[in-house]
Structure formats: C-alpha cells, structure tokens
Structure prediction request, 71 residues.
Amino acid sequence: SSRSDEAIAVLENAAAVDPRHAHARRMLGRALATAGRLDEAVVHLHQAVELAPGDSGTRQDLAEVRARASR
Prediction:
C-alpha cells in the first residue's frame, strides 16, 4: 500500500541519516516484513540486533521474520 511505502521511505531515510540508530533499523525491518519484503527485513533486523544486542524484542522480531522467510 502507499502508506506502507511511505513509512518504509521515512524509515529508510532515518536509517541513512543515523546508521547506528537501532530503533530505526528495527522499525524499518518490521515495516519491510509487513510489506512482504522479508529478505530486506532480515538484513535490517539483524543490523538492529548487532547495534542493540540486549534488546530481546528485536531478537524476537528477527527470529519471527527469519521463520517466515524460510517457509
């Protein structure tokens, strides 16, 4: 949808402005997953985990998207 495309564009910009912003990467990964772009979502969620290894929610998001991507 155009709304999810807009959200992805905003989040891509946020991640580009501050590549070490773990929350922006997580939200981008989640938005990409919602849009069905699972491979891209895994990349951003993995980066978010690397940036914030103690964030169990991001680890869970990554595990869920990886599971969906492997189906």
User: Anything to note?
Assistant: The chain has four helices and no strands. The chain has a mean pLDDT of 95. Residues 2-17 form the longest helix (16 residues). The helical segments are 2-17, 22-34, 38-51, 56-69.
